[in-house]
Amino acid sequence: MGEGIVSVEADAEVDIAVRLESVHEGILASGTADTRYDGVCGRCLADVSEPIEVEFQELFAYPGEEETDFEVQDDHVDLETLVRDAVVLSLPFQPVCQPDCPGLDPETGKRRTMSTEAENPAPIDPRWSALREIADQDQGARPKAVPPRTQKRASHGR
Which residue of 26, 27, 29, 117 has the lowest C-beta tally within 10 Å? Predict the structure, then answer.
């Protein structure tokens, strides 16, 4: 069930809890479906597998003059289409492995981690390159600071 970067496998187990009520117009089906979807993170392409629970409610009308999406067929209701539609519509459009996933590095294509995010400075906009050259020249013209001398402590004879 589903397309794109996440889906529910064809052989995946779907737990359904349903309540069927007889009403004047037909049979009202209400319930929940629990299953698990698998796919990849929309930012870093890591594998993602998450549980999903959806609620559904639909009226299965008795056959008559009016056409409806769901009808009672030979005193039976077919929940397959109803459950499939509910599950597919609740799948995330852009799933992520974690809410603050940093994604892929645009230069290397490798997955970023939170620690490398702080280490790599942001790339400098090429429009500012002339100012960068001036700053580099200014730093080259300044005398370098001399490190302070370390003092040796006199050791007392032992």
Answer: 117
